[in-house]
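Record passed on underneath.
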Amino acid sequence: NSLPAGRLQCRYCMVLGIEEGEYDKAQAAFAQAMVICQRENDIALEARCLANSARVDYFHLYHQENLRKSRRAIRLATQVGDFPTLVSANYYAANSRKYRGDLEEVRRHTQAMLEPAERLRDRELQAIALWSNQELACLEGEWEKARDFGGRGLAVAPLDPRLLGNKIVQE
């Protein structure tokens, strides 16, 4: 029932939901983590828990739940300046929107990933943000824009398989 327990439950939610494929158990861990972070008024932990659980929802194709949790995670992560959580929540929201065919919302989320990822100078987050924008450009047939995002992504993560795969397809 402590903050360290809340952090563990927050991480355990992803392990159960993604690595073990146990959606119901993941949701139970998420609920326990949420009780702790709300009781302790830890907004950053709440944002992280929501983003982690949204990732599990996405993995299990619960797109509506993913979007609900991602929206809240984005709001809270913005409030506390938690850039990694902001990138993650926008990433999974963009992907659920993509599967629903809502490209305007995909654009909003993928563009929202760029600034925090670049600010952090985290190569993995930058690669994810740039690849997501590259994917959107490809879906829209904007090949020059896609090449630009891909080139920028490969400049920070030259061995990223997502970016390399898209480069091969585009060439």
In short: The first helix runs from residue 3 to 19. The CA atoms of residues 59 and 104 lie 22 Å apart. The two ends are 54 Å apart (CA to CA). The chain has a mean pLDDT of 95.
